[in-house]
Amino acid sequence: MPRDVGKLEAREILYAVEELYFFGRFAEAVTFLEGVFRDGAEGLDYEVRGTLEYYRKKCEEKTIKCTDGAEM
Length: 72
Prior knowledge:
Layout: H1 7-22, H2 26-39, H3 46-67
Helix pairs in contact: 1-2, 1-3, 2-3
């Protein structure tokens, strides 16, 4: 049974992902989000979960671009 994630904890998760994204640490953001989704994303509300999915997709895309040698 998934545990509920409170608003404060959800905000902290979002802030951490946004910070990793802002500083170009895309691979770290993907790893972090994989852990979030593995360990309890069901407890997040729909909007927060959607935002985290968006960041995961964008970070994965940027990670692929970086490994292909493309400019950011």
